[in-house]
Write a structure and sequence with these properties.
alpha/beta; Aspartate Aminotransferase, domain 2; Aspartate Aminotransferase, domain 1; 13% strand
């Protein structure tokens, strides 16, 4: 069972079927004037309308990109370079996706100033901290809608109201939230919003940036002037067609999928925490996406847990796919105030609509067996520790830890 849908999702059959003709039969360049090119142009127009409708935007406010990372870069750099004469201060959080965090690091090398807001133990910022961080030099606030490791949802609508009152541009990365909860650009009060296709059962290598009418950005890619001159380069027609269809399906099925996924999520949380000693939920229990849970288990290595689960047929992750090959503790989890040693024992489970096909009890028992096996080999677990006033000796019947 594949349980790493926050990393990527399977392309749905309906999406693939819609894309297929544009690889072979309708292969024209949409910038050309003859028939086959005009057909590609029509397909782009339809896809743009579908994406816009799914987030309550206007079609002309949608710019197609290669994915979430490019959309984040275009939004942040595009605003920073456009408004730098007004100020060079940007506000974000300390749990952003690397596509945001590293982009801001680049801007800091160009003398932009960035304020990184802390989060509480649930991964949520303080609105008061945000207000205190705003200065006369602040030109942009960029805060993700929902965190890709925790699933925690930020108060984007309230942040957007503050930004609008202050005349500050506001960008949110909605790559993880779109398709799982409502994403309405008008309700959220955002000026720019990033989307990605492969998180919602669409193809990889395509995404979009919503740019509110009247908002100006400096392009990152110059060339033939496609996408209203904001993102030059011949459009990825098959990918964009698939993305448009995936957006349409995500919007149509949002309520049903939310109910289904949140039910599985809650069952997972309850059974993991009640079955496995010293298992903890990372992030908020209530203010979170319906499809994502993140646990940590005392005294184990998450990478080893992933391999044991994989051997049993379950694919999950320890955190962001963008940093899963590093041995560093997750910056997102350490930002919650957790011990870096404990952070290494994390497990991220992210569901998709097709995830209802697996047995939650069997999966939780598999996790429990793997955790128990790893703890038998863990010096952190086997050392003598005072637990609830009882000294653990491994064979101590009264110790709940044993």
């Amino acid at each position: 069972m594949y349980l790493d849908n926050s990393a990527t999702t399977q392309v749905s059959e309906e999406v693939f079927k819609e894309m297929e003709p544009y690889f072979t039969q309708e292969f024209g360049n949409p910038s050309t004037l003859y028939g086959i090119g005009r057909e590609s142009k029509k397909a782009l127009t339809q896809a743009r309308e579908r994406v816009a409708k799914a987030i309550n935007a206007k079609p002309e406010e949608i710019i197609f990109t290669s994915g979430g990372s490019e959309s984040d870069n275009l939004a942040i750099k595009g605003i920073a370079f456009k408004l730098k004469s007004r100020g060079k201060h940007i506000i974000t959080t300390n749990i952003e996706h690397p596509a945001v965090k590293n982009t801001l690091g680049f801007l800091e090398s160009l003398d932009f100033k960035v304020t990184y807001l802390p989060v509480n133990e649930e991964g949520i910022i303080s609105i008061d901290d945000l207000k205190d961080a705003i200065t006369d030099e602040t030109i942009l606030i960029t805060i993700m809608h929902a965190n890709n490791e925790l699933g925690t949802i930020q108060p984007i609508e309230e942040i957007g109201k503050i930004a609008r009152e202050k005349g500050i541009k506001f960008h949110t990365d909605a790559v993880q939230s779109f398709g799982k909860i409502e994403v309405d650009v008008e309700k959220l009060n955002v000026d720019l919003l990033s989307l990605s296709s492969h998180k919602i059962n669409g193809p990889k290598g395509v995404g979009a940036l919503y740019i509110k009418k009247g908002t100006r950005v400096v392009p990152l890619i110059h060339g033939g002037g496609q996408e209203r001159g904001i993102r030059s380069g011949t459009e990825n027609v098959p990918g964009i067609v698939g993305f448009g269809k995936a957006c349409e399906l995500a919007a149509e099925n949002l309520d049903d999928h939310y109910e289904k996924l949140s039910s599985i999520r809650d069952e997972l949380i309850e059974k993991v925490l009640n079955t496995i000693p010293e298992a903890y939920l990372n992030g908020s229990k209530e203010i979170r996406l319906p499809n994502l849970v993140n646990f940590r288990f005392k005294a184990i290595e998450g990478e080893s847990l992933i391999l044991l689960l994989d051997a049993k047929g379950y694919q999950a992750s320890t955190g962001s796919a963008c940093s899963s090959n590093t041995l560093e503790a997750s910056p997102v989890l350490t930002a919650l105030g957790l011990d870096p040693v404990d952070v290494h024992g994390s497990l991220r489970i992210s569901l998709a609509p097709e995830s209802d096909a697996f047995d939650v009890d069997e999966f939780v028992n598999t996790i429990a067996e793997a955790v128990s096996r790893l703890r038998q080999m863990s010096p952190l677990w086997n050392q003598e520790l005072d637990y609830d006033g009882v000294m653990c000796k491994k064979d101590h019947d009264d110790c709940r830890r044993c």
